[in-house]
Amino acid sequence: MKRLVLLFCLVLLLPACTEQLSDDAYVVGFYNVENLFDTEHDRGKNDRAFTPEGENAWTVDKYEKKLSNLASVIRSMEQKNGRWHALLGLAEVENDRVLQDLVERKEISEAGYKFVHYESPDPRGIDCALLYRPEYFELLDSYAIPFDFKTRSGIVFEKTPEEQRSFKTRDILCARGRLGGEMTAVYVCHWPSRSGDKGEDLRCRAAEIVRTDAAKLEKRFPGINIIVMGDMNDNPEDVCMAEWLRGRETIAAVGEGDFFSPFLRMHKDGFGSQEYHGEWNIFDCIFVNAALTDVDAEGSLHILRSDASHYGFIFNPPFLTQQDGRYAGTPFRTFSGGQFIDGFSDHYPTYIILSK
Asked: What range does the domain containing 154 cover?
């Protein structure tokens, strides 16, 4: 078993190298930062576990260490790529305060990140956010899209009407602006969980919500670049991603209204960004619309290959991987068995590179 874990880690590292990026290349990524909470209880949120008196004994020292660890990951990706992310979506952040504390960390403060964030109705108080560098991404508009059950495609929901009325989850964040001078919209998602092997209907509805809103933007702004990213709680080949979001495995298969799914082929080839019960998943996905798939278009943004077969990157250096114990060979998480172990997240960051 140990040998299998080691071999898998070595395989995961294969796409980690890339050629020197050109000056007009942009790193666009996503990171589920695993419970980035401050130490104070917020009224109406189920966050007492992340207080000094709570079950996690979440002290200021632990919070500061968590911030430092996450900032060091972002800094390490900058060192690898030779530039900061132009756009970095985040999941599991509590509020504006933790985002401000993060972007001000000494490890990354020179990047000058700004952020977009809206409070969502999630019971635990975790939201999505987008970090962006104003020199590369000119923010024009942003909004939160709430989850609802108003399907127009006949999705059959498991929840009763009463359960639907009381159901709360993360909003979908959309930010529209100009990346490299081109109109670009970014959706940051954290779709409903797989708890109890359920929720596929909810994730299909989340995909329908994103695709419907994206279609409106494509109609309003012909030629707009669209990026969808997030912790989807499904793998790229699962039904909500492949059928409802219409994520295609190859650029050649992308038609009107479709998205290219760079991590679909990677998952089929054995890569993973998150491990659960011995199974490796890529829940941390990034999709691009047809406007970003024309690799022959000169002077327009398009997605770059990470290697001969793939377009996505999983950032998983040894320091982000648990070296021993129960979770050896998996992402180095913050807690193990209820104990703070000074890790980073139970997910690896993922990213793509766009260039002109």
From this structure: 2-355
